[in-house]
Amino acid sequence: xxxxxxxxxxxxxxxxxxxxxxxxxxxxxxxxxxxxxxxxxxxxxxxxxxxxxxxxxxxxxxxxxxxxxxxxxxxxxxxxxxxxxxxxxxxxxxxxxxxxxxxxxxxxxxxxxxxxxxxxxxxxxxxxxxxxxxxxxxxxxxxxxxxxxxxxxxxxxxxxxxxxxxxxxxxxxxxxxxxxxxxxxxxxxxxxxxxxxxxxxxxxxxxxxxxxxxxxxxxxxxxxxxxxxxxxxxxxxxxxxxxxxxxxxxxxxxxxxxxxxxxxxxxxxxxxxxxxxxxxxxxxxxxxxxx
Length: 291
What we know:
The chain is an alpha+beta fold. The chain has 6 helices and 17 strands. An 8-stranded mixed beta sheet has the order 1-2-3-4-5-6-8-7. Strands 12-9-14-13-16-17 form a 6-stranded mixed beta sheet, with helices on both faces.
């Protein structure tokens, strides 16, 4: 066994337990033995960190020590840990040790004959460390909810009708617009979607409504912003150019004729928005928030 000096942060110490080309393992001592930690080489430059330590503080310090050793002495460029999502204490140890949450492998582990999910946390050699401001905020950002933002545009004609699109992926008619991309502000997302779908990005005159949408048919919950696309002559429709792929057609529709043409969500809220387009509507699942 190659001699490896003890790793220490001044209080906690890691002493080499065993070493081979695939695994290096340490005893963890905090005045007395408290567990083990090891790095398993998986693919070139990548290691899996596994620990069994009595308390979370010692586990966190052990992971930090072994991570720096793996990057500095073993030449690894990426480390990861795999945690059962139900083990919240283990997840906190991973994050506070510098590992960012990267996703969930559904049914990746077989435990006593039952398929269990595995949460994956990763750290790269060039990641800012958790005791720096950027390192800590990146860690926290990796664990926080990522809520979808949707931006749609309500375009009206001089007769009070609303412009709706026949889309290729469902029967319900839909407003122009769509999902906002990462690092894109919602107004830009609404304009981009209109440009892509209809060949023209109409000026946005303001926000008509902010709506929260619950989980629905496999989608996670989302925040939707509905922008005012203005009032136009009905001939506007002749100047728009549906992309023919996502948008198969466009048409004007009166607010009292929407039932059965649009989703129940839009059937609830669109007549209300069209009836009072000069006010900001604060909605929950298409209905006004009153308390």
